[in-house]
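Attaching the record inline, Q. Sequence:
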Amino acid sequence: MSAPKTPAASPTVRVQSPARISPGQTVAIRVAIAHPMVTGQQNDDQGRRQIRNILTRFECHGPAGLLWAMDLHPAMAANPSLQFFLRPSATMTLSLRWWGDQGFEHEHTHELVVT
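Structure, as predicted:
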């Protein structure tokens, strides 16, 4: 089996949330990450089966701990776009974490401003 191609730079993460949030307002948080997915079903140029390389878990943590999590599976998109809802009562920093095959781990922080 051939090793998957890995990017030289950090993956690109996109986060969408309102610029300002009122206390107790429910808001949608959208996150996406660019990840070089390999399903493990394809063959490389020499006809060898490629090693699977997918995202397997996403977690969103706040000051009090885990806020939202999702296990990801092979049928998901290569660069999954996820949406979840939060109701923050104070400004907080979110820790967005992804895990995947081949030892992939990435963390990104995002500030939610409550005014």
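The CA atoms of residues 70 and 107 lie 15 Å apart. The first strand starts at residue 13 and ends at 16.

More tomorrow.
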